[in-house]
Amino acid sequence: MNAKGKISGFVLNQAMNYISGNPEKNLPKLLNWIDALGIKDFESQSRVFHEVLDHPDNVWYQYIMGLWRDIDNDVLKAVFRNFGLNANILSFSKQRELEKEHGCNIPMTILIDPTSACNLKCTGCWAAEYGNKLNLPYETLDSIIRQGKELSIYFYLYSGGEPLMRKTDIIRLCDEHPDCQFAAFTNGTLIDEAFAEELLRVKNFIPIISVEGFEEDTDFRRGAGTFKKVERAMAILKEKRLPFGTSCCYTSKNVHIIGSEEYFDRMIEWGAKFCWFFTYIPVGKEAVPELMATAEQRAYMYRQIRKFRETKPIFTLDFWNDGEYAGGCIAGGRRYLHINANGDMEPCAFVHYSDSNIHEKTLLEALKSPLFMAYRNGQPFNENHLRPCPLLDNPDALAGMVEDSGAYSTDLQNPEDVRELAAKCKNAAENWADVADELWGCFGHCQGCKNHQNA
Q: Domain segments of the chain: what residues?
């Protein structure tokens, strides 16, 4: 981190110490001091913060105060420093400069599979399609992060397989890179007291625990007894005041549970500070297309998530339906990319095709490869950003990019032809198109619009 980063980190640390003394009193006071400095670039952000902090009955006021109440102070400082400052505020302009210099996408984050091994076998999961014996050596993981930091990337996500099968190496990487924020999509069953103590020590790792609803639905997809193990893991994290989130895959079978008020309230009760929603994608030859949400079900989730953002103190992200905020598809290095446990660099975790491997190319070389450049040149894949995905929403787009770039299937056990994959998504894309176009017409915010009505 350069001198500017160190100074910014010091100022942030002092501000956090001040706020922690009395968040309800000192946070608004600090904002007023910043306003008095007349920082022009901060004016729009200041208005947003005032809208929250000047109205204690606002749900986001409750959320912000809950961060100081529920999360260990030193861990919270690390999150603000590493994720807020290093990975966002200090990196954004630098990444845009690098994009101009190199003529390719520079992502905000990298999703890495340390291993393809998993202690569960979930129905319809594509992760096992890679094979369960693949592992990225520690030295490779460390090299990816070091290369990423050269590109001003300070946020790293893990998936798998089950990433916590590599607990020791994950903690070692947290120690080696204390200026980075790490997180992992995990089934949660390997989180115990000892691991939680390690998280308190390193301070820069956040679990994102996969849950499919309540006990019946979670155990249906992940195996009997899984739900109780997950609840135990969340109880440990909550007790130790460690931040964590949830990851929810909504399918045709569980969508009305995942989108229910009861479920949102339960996530808050568990102690989750955020939830990342995904919809089921039929990736891999063993996929179950019948689990894909219908267009009506996807619209239901669109409405429910937006409704509860106004009333529930939990931060939510919808990987597909939030395309309007992200300007369309974020894959292909535009905001993130995926490196699987074999080292194949894929444009997206749901796109198992690649023309580059981290064992053979640098990260920057991969971002300049034909497949990643095809993403860059094709984005956005649809003017309607509620139809952002080149697979789920515009399947011919993905097929064309894979074929034109000469990319190969990264599924080592049962390689899937991209046209076969695209065909599984064609009906869903066509059915969603009309619904998405109607939603896009008014963003679902028009008073009296039927898009506001519950499905």
A: 1-87, 102-454
Q: How far apart are CA 210 and CA 200, in angstroms?
A: 21
Asked if 371 and 407 count as a contact pair (C-beta separation under 8 A), the reply is: yes
CATH number assigned to the domain with residue range 102-454, chosen from the 4 options 1.10.260.40, 3.20.20.70, 3.40.640.10, 3.30.160.150:
3.20.20.70
For the chain, 455 residues long, give each residue's pLDDT as a single digit of tens. Answer: 666 677 777 777 888 888 888 989 988 888 888 788 776 656 777 888 888 898 899 999 999 999 999 999 999 999 999 998 999 988 999 999 999 999 999 999 999 999 999 988 776 565 555 556 799 999 999 999 999 999 999 999 999 999 999 999 999 999 999 999 999 999 999 999 999 999 999 999 999 999 988 998 888 878 889 999 999 999 999 999 999 999 999 999 999 999 999 999 999 999 999 999 999 999 998 899 999 999 999 999 999 999 999 999 999 999 999 999 999 999 999 999 999 999 999 999 999 999 999 999 999 999 999 999 999 999 999 999 999 999 999 999 999 999 999 999 999 888 999 999 999 999 999 999 999 999 998 665 444 454 444 44
